[in-house]
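Thread: Modeling a multi-component assembly for a lab meeting

Hi all, long-time lurker, first post. My supervisor asked me to bring a structural picture of a complex we are working on to next week's group meeting, and I have zero experience with this. I have the sequence lines for every component (608 residues in total). Could someone generate the structure of the whole assembly? Inputs are pasted exactly as I received them:
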Amino acid sequence: VKRVLVTGASGFVGRQTLAPLAALGFEVHAAGRSPAPAAGVAWHEVDLLDPFAAERLCWDVAPSHLLHVAWFAEPGRYWTSPENPRWVEASVRLLRAFVAAGGRRAVGVGTCAEYDWSAPSPFDERTTPLRPASLYAACKHAVHVVQEAYAASSGVSQAWARLFHLYGPHEHPGRLVPGVAIALRRGGEAACTEGRHRRDFLHVADAGEALARLLDSGVAGAVNVASGEAVAVRAVVEEVARHSGGSGVVRFGARALPAGEPDEIAARVDRLRDEVGWRPRRTLAEGIADVVAWWREHEAEARA
Amino acid sequence: VKRVLVTGASGFVGRQTLAPLAALGFEVHAAGRSPAPAAGVAWHEVDLLDPFAAERLCWDVAPSHLLHVAWFAEPGRYWTSPENPRWVEASVRLLRAFVAAGGRRAVGVGTCAEYDWSAPSPFDERTTPLRPASLYAACKHAVHVVQEAYAASSGVSQAWARLFHLYGPHEHPGRLVPGVAIALRRGGEAACTEGRHRRDFLHVADAGEALARLLDSGVAGAVNVASGEAVAVRAVVEEVARHSGGSGVVRFGARALPAGEPDEIAARVDRLRDEVGWRPRRTLAEGIADVVAWWREHEAEARA
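Re: Modeling a multi-component assembly
Sure thing. I ran the full set together rather than chain by chain. Output:
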């Protein structure tokens, strides 16, 4: 039996992995700090920062597979928060508990910020140097270093998914896509950068499916989870505006691009496409249309 | 007041740091799992793998400085032991507790095994690539990654001491120098490799002094703690034999050099010499003479 433990299962990314995992034949055990959000999944309400939680959880579930998505992810704070080293501890503890309980394959979640952003884009898992410049990225990188060596010495299979720029349902309303969509719907102004910089955007439901497929494969090591296409942020904003309706306006150039943001951050996706055998289901236009429609129905969330 | 917390203070390396730290004007608080070995030092009997120990300890001591030496170090087992990821957790937890208690400067202890051993020796902190090939080295490297980023974001000063090959009192009797010294004293055979490979040897008392000086400096980042000289292992064995007396014989070539052992592992010590301003007190000949004499008086330890 393939029995997966998914952490961070109530979060932006984690919740999108549950249905794809079930579709791949996994018995899905989802862990999150909130109460069970819905029926149809074995839910474990647990705080992985509790020093004894992971051991109990892995003992109870005895998962063959681990998809570790949980981390501190509050927008605006997660880059520098002292919660990051706490999640290093929690993640290593979870890995140990998973191995001790007989686990066979683990996938952890990293970030494009592990790469040296001064290196040429697109970033390649095998050739682009790593140089995490934030506490968040350094802590993610440290977990990967431990995971890779510990899995090798324990005979456990492992991979490390580096996420790039995601958008989709349940995103924090302060972030780019919902921020613009909501401002325009309300008839306000969306203050944006010039938007000439290019990023690699992926709908979070596609990312969830990619993570499920990566876990179900035997692919080892770091794998970029991204679209493989570099798109100007301006084009994304214009696409959001086209679907949003409302009488608001976008002000390009009203915000300066923060220091240290390179012209392009995009992914080589050869490993994801050729080794895992996965491509995104949605074009960017389809994905943006989907998420703008979702925000129309969930505007109340943004007011919370 | 400069108040230092030293972990691993009853171990091979940690015990050698206490007197040099006191000589530099530190109020020394030593932590180890064993009961207090001697008077004259504030001793804290504590197991840092206990999830609450570090927080209590840092709260009690309120150290301005941290010298974190503790780790799992059992010869023959430490390269691959699952204790290594536990020490990642314990080390990150200790760092967090130190910062929370108002700590200002931390020095951690790494290893020459963090470097890519296929790179040319001597290894330089700034230019030699890192490629930890063992679970031990990967876990040490991960702690350094977290320490560096976390210290930067917390306004804490930090350095990372990479130790090379140490020898000296209290070394595990199964290791090279005591192994040869004891075998020869007993009139037996010391089965050695050909000993053509070159290593960078430092007396552990010198290493202890170097760590104390590094902690007392403001030098940031990785610093090799080594002699800076590459010496053939054969020459070290011959020096041990010259001092040991006894009727035993050395059999060079009786053992094969393990796979993956490069011809030379030595350190560039420019940072230690020029920035920290420290050089070893002992030549290799003096150091070996010292430790052979020590083993003569402590042969009983080797029988334990």
